From TrEMBL:
This is Alpha-amylase. Its EC number is 3.2.1.1. Keywords: Calcium, Carbohydrate metabolism, Glycosidase, Hydrolase, Metal-binding, Signal. Residues 30-378 form the Glycosyl hydrolase family 13 catalytic domain. The lineage of its organism: Bacteria, Bacillati, Actinomycetota, Actinomycetes, Propionibacteriales.
Amino acid sequence: MRKLLVLLLGLSMAGLSGASAQAAPTGERDVIVQLFEWNWTSVGRECGQVLGPKGYGAVQVSPPQEHVVLPGSGYPWWQDYQPVSYKLDSTRRGTRSQFVAMVNSCHAAGVKVYVDAVINHMTGGSSGGTGSAGSSYTHYDYPGTYQTQDFHHCGRNGNDDIVNYGDRYEVQNCELVDLADLATGTDYVRGRIAAYLNDLLSIGVDGFRLDASKHMPAEDIAAIKSRLSGSAYLYQEVIYGAGEPITPDEYVGNGDVLEFRYGKDLAKIFNTERLAYLKTFAEPLASDRAVVFTDNHDTQRGSGVLTFRDNGRYAMANAFMLAWTYGTPKVMSSYEYTSNDEGPPSTSTGQTVDTTCFSNRWRCEHEWRVIANMVGFHNAVRGTAVTEWWDNGNDAIAFGRGDKGYLVLNDESSALTGRSFHTQLPAGVYCDVFHGDYSAGSCTGPTYTVDSSGWFRADVAASDGLALHAAARVS
């Protein structure tokens, strides 16, 4: 492993208290933030206080449907990914009326709402129980919703679980870790799923992250999409596996696809290779179909990606993602955990407490100054090409985005001193949004003067960077 990042200068937190599926988010703001496991009241407040003002385009919220409740397992985060019914009442995050209020609050702040939609399966385990809204269930019986005939019973591997990911039939007809696999090829199941998604659309939800999309044939998702009322942005979870028959490209006809290779490849460059390699950074999936991220709730509990525990290096990787031209960026917002199953900060009965950023285990990476301010950078440079690339052949890089922005990243162990950088920015004084906040023509941090020929001079500390953009011009 290369050096661990220990100098966090400039990377500190900001301290802020017949439907159609769109192929990419519409509007000038497309950055998505995943507020993982936040309750509805906290999401609504964050939209008005932070997400809207900082320029985030949409918030991805955790699954809102009724789910299993597992006190014996300590109310793990993954209980939310085991649906019991499609009621929008949860003892964990709030009531239907609180969900509606959240959507309205986010829209008032100019922020769209995308729901993490679990439609591939229902619950695991044979014993059953009572869901978060009081509904009784067993593994293949959900009164009023689904019965045994509405599930796949693949008849393989003893317990019907997927064993061979090289077998398309198993992946899309057997059970993902014992979760009752819905027969999404049937008209009835498609209708019930569409009714759930249409209920959310009627409330004002703008789109969906389709969980476990790889485990449903693309044509099944297309059939469900055709039953939606109005327009919805779709992005699908299809994890690429080398040598596996199911690939992300199969799903682009339905909408965008989460590009899981991106975070691992970005981490590899930051951790073991050279930032100079980022000059041509991209993935096989077409840029206008890819939703990219450094990490998400699953990958941060695995290995091979950068997470909030990488502190400054993580912030720099997100800065690159938000400044680069590939894909639609999705920012992660996490909480601290000591075991991979641990749920969010909660009461003794499993109710998620209101989020208090930077305390009580809430990490809130989306509010870190570098990440939050680079959302504004991303919005300012959207639609421009990469220009004026420079690197030192190793771990210092710089590049512009046309005449709208310029980014410098120095992941070396020593400072870049006395260096002049050439940009296409118009002459003027610009706020460095890595280290300061821009508002009403002033900057709380350092500024840099770009001369009439596009040059500016800067010293950039080790493990640090700077970012200038046209919407943060002081004079």
